[in-house]
Design brief:
The strands form three sheets. A seven-stranded mixed beta sheet has the order 4-10-9-8-7-5-6, sandwiched between helices. The chain has a four-stranded mixed beta sheet with strand order 1-2-3-12. A three-stranded antiparallel beta sheet has the order 11-14-13. The model has no long low-confidence stretch (mean pLDDT 94). Helix 8 links the parallel strand 7 and strand 8 (210-215). It is globular and about 60 Å long. Helix 3 runs antiparallel to helix 12 (292-330) and helix 13 crosses helix 14. By secondary structure, the protein is an alpha/beta fold. The protein has two domains: 14-60 and 309-411, Aspartate Aminotransferase, domain 1; 81-290, 3-Layer(aba) Sandwich (Aspartate Aminotransferase, domain 2). It is built from 14 helices and 14 strands. It has helices at residues 3-11, 15-25, 63-76, 90-103, 114-126, 140-151, 164-173, 197-206, 239-242, 271-280, 283-286, 292-330, 350-362, 392-411; strands spanning 35-37, 40-43, 46-50, 107-111, 131-135, 155-159, 180-185, 210-215, 250-255, 265-269, 342-346, 365-366, 368-370, 381-385.
């Protein structure tokens, strides 16, 4: 047995071993895509409808964005490999100015991913003696960033999602610490529900804390001035503007790998904070830069968003509502109170999850699986994501496939909703 085998076998125990089991049991893990046509994907000889993409606005397929990339490549090459501390193509400056205007902050700083922003900014702010208050339902990458800060001496306190009483008690206990950071998602990655910005921000103001919002999924879809015509809101400028707040005590992180289909992310900041992040957040000088294609695609994406974004968001809402209402009529449970295009259909058991995923695959549907321990035991879900590039016909195919999932679960005497007996 090699040293590699010994390390692997020694680690194939406990909760993570179950993920390995699912990985080897489902065709929806590590699937080798060969070709796409719109939101249809070819795997081998089979075409399936894609409900696993997070390209919410369909920018990955937008012809205007695609056509804009080659001229930028001719000008800058595929990847000017300066770290940002040394030099940056002017594409960065243009994008940062336009994103700060769109979200209404003094400035923003762009790095390649939300993860890099978190693991750079959180430890830089907390130092050796900060206190972090982390929503247990927030994205795992924030937890990884918090662990790095904790290893340097900062304190990490977790609280259950929306348990503001526990959060306030922690803030009271550490009211004299000037470095307090509350870490939450904007649109939550498993439910699509939004953080209630007024509650969390006003609580933070009461105890002189900063709110760190990871809106990797929400940015580009959620926006300002929501109404009956467009419940998501307009412009796609994020969950903070959705609730009509500013950035006085908020660090807002917008992901661009979802709605803007690009390898990039940004964090809101004023000039002083931007200078501080550049000096203290190690990814600014130790990570690679965004590829030219990504930078150009977000610049053109901003143009497309201004011209057509609200039309795409309206279609996206319509498709998502059609899917959610149809699934609820069948009796399935989804924790989604926004009609956001993240639809996690509760299954509640990993073995049933594997079998229902096979039914979907055999009926030309690709979704994302969320088995235990990726989620809590009993909360296993089939996670559907819808984009503006999907069609009503594909939604109907999805609903027809879930009729077969329902039939299987009822045959197995499995409940369709948590806490219910079939």
């Amino acid at each position: 047995m090699s040293s590699f085998d010994k390390i692997i076998d020694a680690n194939l125990i406990g909760q993570r071993a179950l993920i390995s089991k699912v990985l080897h049991s489902s065709q929806m893990f590590d699937a080798d895509a060969l070709e796409i046509k719109g939101r249809m994907i070819r795997f081998g000889d089979n075409w399936v409808a894609d409900f696993a993409s997070c390209n919410y606005l369909g920018f990955d397929l937008n012809e205007e964005i695609i056509a804009s990339v080659e001229p930028a490549l001719r000008k800058w090459g595929v990847h000017p490999s300066w770290c940002r501390l040394v030099a940056s193509p002017n594409l960065y400056t243009q994008a940062e100015e336009q994103f700060s205007e769109l979200i209404g902050s003094e400035d923003v700083l762009i790095l390649p991913t939300v993860t890099l922003i978190s693991i750079g900014v959180v430890p830089a702010l907390m130092g050796q003696d900060g206190v972090m208050f982390l929503d247990k339902s927030a994205h795992m990458t924030m937890y990884e960033a918090a662990k790095m800060a904790r290893d340097s001496g900062s304190k990490l306190i977790s609280f259950n999602h929306n348990d503001y009483d526990v959060l306030e008690e922690g803030l009271k206990q550490h009211r004299d610490n000037p470095k307090k950071l509350i870490m939450v998602d904007g649109a939550y990655s498993m439910t699509g529900n939004y953080i209630h910005v007024p509650t969390i921000v006003e609580l933070a103001k009461k105890y002189n804390a900063i709110v760190y919002i990871d809106d990797a999924h929400g940015f580009g879809v959620v926006g300002e001035n929501p109404d009956e015509n467009l419940p998501y809101g307009y412009k796609g400028n994020g969950v903070v503007r959705h609730f009509d707040y500013d950035y006085d005590n908020i660090l807002y992180v917008g992901g661009l790998s979802k709605a803007y289909s690009s390898l990039a992310a940004f964090i809101s900041c004023d000039k002083k904070m931007k200078s501080y992040i550049k000096a203290y957040a190690t990814p600014y000088d130790l990570s690679g830069p965004c590829p030219t294609a990504s930078l150009q695609s977000i610049l053109t994406g901003l143009v497309v968003n201004e011209k057509h974004g609200d039309v795409f968001r309206k279609k996206l809402y319509h498709l998502s509502k059609q899917a959610i209402d149809g699934l609820r009529e069948m009796g399935f449970y989804m924790d989604n109170n926004t009609y956001y295009p993240i639809i996690s259909v509760w299954i509640g058991d990993t073995d049933y999850l594997i079998q229902t995923a096979k039914i979907l695959w055999d009926n030309q549907i690709l979704v994302t699986l969320a088995p235990y321990p990726m989620v809590k035991k009993g909360q296993e879900t089939l996670r559907i994501t819808i984009t503006a590039a999907n069609t009503e016909h594909e939604i109907q195919i999805l609903l027809q496939a879930f009729q077969k999932v329902k039939h299987y679960l009822l045959e197995m005497q499995a409940p369709l909703q948590p806490g219910l007996v079939p």
